[in-house]
Specification:
There is one protein chain. The chain is an alpha+beta fold. It has helices at residues 34-40, 77-86, 142-148; strands spanning 16-17, 24-25, 50-56, 61-64, 68-71, 94-101, 109-119, 125-139. The strands form three sheets. It has a four-stranded mixed sheet with strand order 3-8-7-6, with helices on both faces. A two-stranded antiparallel sheet has the order 1-2.
């Protein structure tokens, strides 16, 4: 027998039927095919599809709450970072990709396409893509508001009352 000849049996992996549609698949912990798994489990359900961002009309800056204003061009990496921080629920999934979807500049809408993934069962990872729309809310930052107002006043009022306890009757 030649030492270079090896026995290679034709190995086939066992298959099971998807418990929803009956399609033969490689076994996984859910025993479902990927399309059926996507239809049953929405990994993006905790992420809102619409959010708001304040934009100063005077100095063209975006608001980072509570009171920080940052300059960023449309479709820039800086603006994308600001918008991603405003999306709730991203900490529960893994962000694979984020990119802008083109909209008309005057529409006061910024759309961001997100691709996320999450492990749903012990070894099954689902990936999902969707669009989050940000409504641009025009406003003024504190600096521009003070500059636009002709008579702008800041005041702190403190009221104090001094009384003796002898006036109180129990």
């Amino acid at each position: 027998m030649n030492s270079q000849s090896y026995y290679n049996p034709n190995v086939t992996l066992p298959t099971v039927l998807c418990c929803v549609c009956g399609l033969p698949i490689n076994p996984n912990s859910a025993n479902m095919c990927v399309p059926c798994l996507r239809s049953k489990i929405d990994i993006s359900e905790e992420i809102p599809r619409q959010s708001y961002i304040n934009f100063c009309r005077g100095c063209q800056r975006y608001n980072i709450p509570p009171s920080h204003w940052v300059t960023a061009e449309l479709e820039s990496p800086q603006l994308l970072a600001i918008l991603l921080k405003r999306v709730k629920g991203l900490s529960k999934v893994r962000l694979v990709d984020a990119s802008f979807v083109w909209t008309e500049p005057h529409s006061k809408r910024i759309k961001v396409k997100l691709i996320i993934e999450k492990a749903v069962f012990s070894s099954t990872v689902l990936q999902h893509s969707f669009v989050v729309e940000f409504v641009v809310m025009p406003s003024f930052c504190e600096d521009c508001h003070q500059g636009a107002a002709k008579d702008h006043w800041n005041a702190v009022v403190q009221l104090r009352q001094k009384s003796s306890r002898s006036h109180y009757k129990h």
